[in-house]
Amino acid sequence: MQKSNELQQQINEFEAKLNDLRKQQDFERKGERAEAVTAAKELIKNYDLTASDLGLAGKGAIKRISGDKRNVVAPKYQDPESGKTWTGRGKSPAWLSAKMSAGQDKQEFLIKS
């Protein structure tokens, strides 16, 4: 019985040490992350990089960079209040649906080229 208690005590000590090591690792990772963010910001500034250059410009941009060959379609409709746009493909956005249910015509929101 004594050995069982000693083993349990050792297990508890090892678990405490493991928790301390995990806390230390998390702390170090946060520091490394902060350094990485600072370095990335410096590179972006030095090379005048844009979100598009990094593949971060809008939904699906990373897919397009990595080989998605679909054509990008220019927006066809725009909300004059928010500036949000829609290509006219797929389900209509909430802003347009709300305007249409309020009695406005979809043609009012066409982007004039």
The structural class is mainly alpha
Helix content: 40-55%
Q: Distance N terminus to C terminus? A: 86 Å
Residue windows where pLDDT falls under 50 for at least 5 positions: none
Main β sheet profile: 2 strands, antiparallel
Encode the helix/strand succession as letters: HHEEH
Number of helices: 3
Mean pLDDT: 86
User: What is the rounded Rg?
Assistant: 27 Å
Number of strands: 2
What can you tell me about this protein's structure?
Strand 1 (about 75-80) and strand 2 form a beta hairpin. This protein has a two-stranded antiparallel ribbon. The model has no long low-confidence stretch (mean pLDDT about 85). With about 110 residues, the chain is mainly alpha-helical. It is built from 3 helices and 2 strands. The protein folds into 2 domains: about 1-70; about 75-110, no CATH class. The protein has helices at about 1-45, 60-65, 95-100; strands at about 75-80, 85.
